Amino acid sequence: MNKVIIISIFLMSSWTAYSQKTVIAFYDSAWVLTTKEFAKYYRVGALDTKKYKYHGKVKDYYINGGLQMEGTFKANIKVDSFYFYYPNGKLMTKGLYQNNLRYGFWTNYYQNGKIKDKIGYYGDFVCALEYYDEDGNPKLINGTGDWKTEFYDDFTMDIVQIEGSYKDTLRHGTWKYYITSILPGTSQEKELKCIEEYENGVFLSGKYFWANMGTEDLSRPTMRILPETTKFDKLEKWAYSKYASREEYPDLKFLPKIDSTVFPVDNLAEFPGGLDSLTKEITKSMKLSKSYIASQKMRSSMFRIMIDTNGKLKITEYLSELKLMLSPDNQLFNDQSIRAIKRLPAWKPASRQGKNVINHFILMIKMDNGDISVELSSMNEKR
Q1: What is the greatest pairwise CA distance in the chain?
Q2: Burial, 184: exposed, middle or buried (Cβ in 10 Å; 0-12, 13-18, 19+)?
Q3: CA neighbours within 13 Å on the CB side: how many for 73?
């Protein structure tokens, strides 16, 4: 019996080891899965490649290799000590997680290494226990005094600044909340967004200032204090960008296959001599009799083409097939268009960050009263 149990345990351990693999995943500025080329951060950790959950020590890095976070996970649940770092490598925040929630006392630091504040977390209860200015002067001790803090709300894309007071760990007096939006097109100026009044932790009144829409009286608190970053929610739910694919991450079977049309290019693929030369080359290759041309006022064929990293052209989709079904007399023009395209010489490949990349185009060949014209439109955005 004992032998059977030992063998069973061994087999279970082997399965666990087999299903877990150290992976490197790249993330954009919003902590959405992407490719290395578009990344601002990356994560290294042991991933259960069947359930897509992290186990053990996990480290997040800035793209330059500097440590951004380190902590321990159990099936994607944050446990024990976590450490967060500034881009300059200095410790920014440290604290404990219990069942995926911040718990106990957390310490935040200025970039000069001095303690900024100590925050207590217990369920939904959050309070500042100590606060020091950048010179190290105490402003709040043992849960009593004035407190200032600033954080980035990655859900609203705002920088939030809070000024308030505590009395015996309870909010007391006037609390002010300032917002600075970093969204493109906004003023990006600091604005007073909300005022709340408290007495010994009890909310008394408040006002919320809507942009160009007046003031709203509040009957309850509306502003959050140091909310959890949405980074973890995105990571745990495997939010991914249009650039992430199974080809890039073979272990993430839920990702779609690569779609090279979504990748931007710095320089579009180019036919030698440009569009005029392309038109002349296609016109020269199309064998249409004078009688056919005279009998056809207007004809067109459209294709999706791909220029690979060596400049070789491939027709990836015949976009006129439905039109041929409805107008079979367009078949000759379509066949000659295909013939002309396949006879084209190599192109100059597209490039991105100095490397040759794939470029997709919509190519249309038209004939109007015997005159051939060509239209070319890139499916890849040029940046």
Answers
A1: 97
A2: exposed
A3: 22
Residues 122 and 105 in one domain: yes
Domain limits for position 189: 156-163+171-219
Q: Among 116, 221, 122, which Cα is nearest to 175's?
A: 221
Torsion sign across C-alpha atoms 141, 142, 147, 152: positive
The values of phi and psi at residue 317, to 5°, are: -160, 135
pLDDT of residue 152: 87
Give me the half-sphere count of Cα atoms (radius 13 Å) on the Cβ side of residue 21: 13
Same domain, yes or no, for 192 and 240? no
Q: Would you say residue 247 lies in a domain?
A: yes
pLDDT tier for residue 55 given thresholds of 50, 70 and 90 = very high
Would residue 245 count as lying in a domain?
A: yes
206 and 232 inside one domain: no
Q: Is residue 6 part of a domain?
A: no
Residues 232-288: pLDDT tens digits? Answer: 999 989 999 999 999 999 999 999 999 999 999 999 999 999 999 999 999 999 988
Asked if residue 256 is part of any domain, the answer here is no
Same domain, 283 and 327: yes
Tokens of 115: 């303690």
Please state, for a pLDDT cut of 70, what percent of the chain lies above it: 93
What is the 3-class SS of 136-183, one letter each residue? Answer: CCEEEECCEEEEEEEEEECCCCEEEEEEEEEECCEECEEEEEEEEECC
pLDDT one-digit tens code per residue, 138-158: 999 999 999 999 998 877 788
Exposure string (b/e) for 1-23, b if CB count within 10 Å is 16 or more? eeeeeeeeeeeeeeeeeeebeeb
Amino acid 9: pLDDT:
42
Please indicate whether residue 119 or residue 13 has the higher confidence score (pLDDT): 119
Residue 17 has pLDDT above 70, yes or no: no
**Mean per-residue pLDDT over the chain, rounded:** 91
* Cα four-point dihedral sign 254, 255, 256, 257: negative
Number of domains comprising the chain:
3
Nearest to 176 by CA among 190, 165, 162, 166: 162
Q: Is the pTM of this model over 0.70?
A: yes
Same domain, 346 and 315: yes
